[in-house]
Amino acid sequence: MEIYLPIAEQSINIFILLGLGGAAGLLAGMFGVGGGFLATPLLIFVGIPPAVAVASQANQVVANSISSLQVQWRRGNVDLRMGLILLFGGMLGSSGGVTLFTYLKRIGQIDFVIAVLYVVMLSAIGTLMLAESLRSWLKAKRHPEAPRGKLHTHYLVHRLPLKMRFYKSKLYISALLPLGLGFLIGMLSAILGVGGGFVLVPAMIYLLGMPTGVVIGTSNFQILFVAANVTFLQAVTNGTVDVVLALLLILGGVVGAPIGARLAARLPGVVLRGLMAVLVLGVAVELLAELLRTPLSPYSLGIREVMP
Amino acid sequence: MRVGTLVLGSMLVLSLVLGLGLATQAQAPRPELPQSPALAAPPEAATPNLLVDLSQPRVSITSAFQGESLLLFGMFDPPGEIVVVVAGPPAREQVMRKERFLGLWLNTGRQLFDDVPAYYYIAASQPVQRLLARGAGGEILSLEDRLASVQSVGERRTAGELASFRDGLVGVKRNEGLYPAAFGQVTIQGGRLFRAELPFPSRLPEGVYDVRTYLLRDGKIVAAVSRPLPVGKVGFNADLAGWSRHDGAFYGIGAIAMALFVGWVGGALMRRL
């Protein structure tokens, strides 16, 4: 069944979109990240203009994160202080990001920048995750009950000024860290249409050293508001948010998420992270291949301006 | 397909009735012709009749829109040949060219063209080249001739470069079905009735399209009818597109509210299951 998307201005099979949303929801349920990093490239693969894919995906992330935040908030898994600082950085980053996006769109380089950023991000994250899960898998094999060391290791970044206490996260770190991290994620969110959970969650665990329990809730808190900001700014400056497209993705996601959560409960964490790493790397490779492959036609059309 | 034949058949009957009615009535009212500059030279006094209508007054882009085929039909005083030219609203198009850079394909060249028709289609009752070769070429333009006149804007390029950008533009539009590659067929029946099918793809730019029908005798235009064909979104699609274009803030807030609502309710519902 085909449906015409009013902003993307093309008709597409409704089940492709529901399926894509479902897959993203499945990931969200399994790994606690939004799945936007997978949905956006796939939307582009099926022919949605990248600018529309990114902006509409941001709209989908809003629904995804409220859905997840509902539970996390009730369980008290949100470090509000950390979340607000991340959010402040995120608002700055996403606003700057949309401005940059608009500029890149005007000079006709947005598609390329989106693809390259995805390749770089996904291969870095995928490799790190794969290495980490392999390491912990090997460790678990050798010492089934390895003693836990320090809560987290101290890097150079912990010597930054403006230190603050984050009681819920049991941290005493510089506020500049979450601020900078939030800014970066906001930027990513604006340009790539992702919530940024797949970067934010590992960064909160490994870089900030936050306990895993509050990571998902806090990242969802930040992502919700940043994604809303991106949706609003994209709608105002570029008019590229397709609500019909977003709604179909959301509906798919609503169904996919609990299935993912149930699957996650059955699989051990190491396997789960390993699977995720492989998936992330797979998308990166496909995107890279797309950039390297000789296109069918080197020509494409940019913005069309109707003449008076 | 079956629906199409049905529509086609009923239109034929309709046009037959129309033709008969006209045959009995010598002084038939002529449809109003919006006078465009190209048609400025008024046809001579004894203008032969040329009546044209479309199976639909407009192309409506609904949620189920997947492209559409319209039937153009009409009647003329024989003898003669019929040529139909459909042109979408002109726009400034930006053509981008990718080149390999450090192994990666990225846009390196950009060329603007003014006055590019969004859509262009020609149908004729005889091979178009033959009709045009006999002198009407000044008025009826093939796609190539029509595009030869588009103005390049901005950067200075050699004629060859410009031509390759123009070919690239045509290639992309062909792929999207906006410049159908083949010339369409105008079928003449009973010597005075004609019909032609106008194919519109799903990725159809909005605007007022110009449907022109010419009656040619000995390669000269003896009558012409120009009909506007509005193409646009209708219903909720039109509302959404309108808000997105004119009131982005309202649209954005609406989009966020929709996502919050569906996400909240959907999430809560699915957890109950």
Could you explain the architecture of this structure?
With 308 residues, chain A is mainly α. Chain A contains 10 helices and 6 strands; from the N terminus they run ββαααααββαααααββ. Chain A has helices spanning 14-31, 36-45, 50-74, 80-106, 110-142, 176-192, 197-208, 212-237, 243-266, 269-292; strands at 2-5, 10-13, 163-166, 171-174, 299-301, 305-306. In chain A, the strands form 2 sheets. Chain A has a two-stranded antiparallel sheet. Chain A has a two-stranded antiparallel sheet with strand order 3-4. In chain A, helix 7 packs across helix 8 (212-237). The two termini of chain A are 37 Å apart. The mean pLDDT of chain A is 83. Chain B is α+β, with helices and mostly antiparallel strands. Chain B is 33% helix and 36% strand. Chain B contains 6 helices and 12 strands. Chain B has a 9-stranded mixed β-sheet with strand order 1-3-10-9-7-4-11-12-2. In chain B, strands 5-6-8 form a 3-stranded antiparallel β-sheet, covered by helices on one side. In chain B, a hairpin with a 2-residue loop joins strand 5 (90-101) and strand 6 (104-117). The two termini of chain B are 43 Å apart. In chain B, 33% of the residues are buried. The model of chain B is unreliable at 1-43 (pLDDT under 50). The interface between A and B is large, with 62 and 68 residues. Strand 5 (299-301) of chain A pairs antiparallel with strand 5 (90-101) of chain B.
What is the terminal separation of chain B in angstroms? Answer: 43 Å
Contiguous runs where pLDDT drops below 50 for at least 5 residues of chain B = 1-43
Structural shape of chain B: flat
Helical fraction of chain A: over 70%
SSE ordering of chain A: EEHHHHHEEHHHHHEE
Number of strands of chain B: 12
Judged by helices, strands and strand pairing, the structural class of chain B is alpha+beta
Give a brief description.
The complex is a heterodimer of chains A (308) and B (273). Helices cover 70% and strands 7% of the residues of chain A.
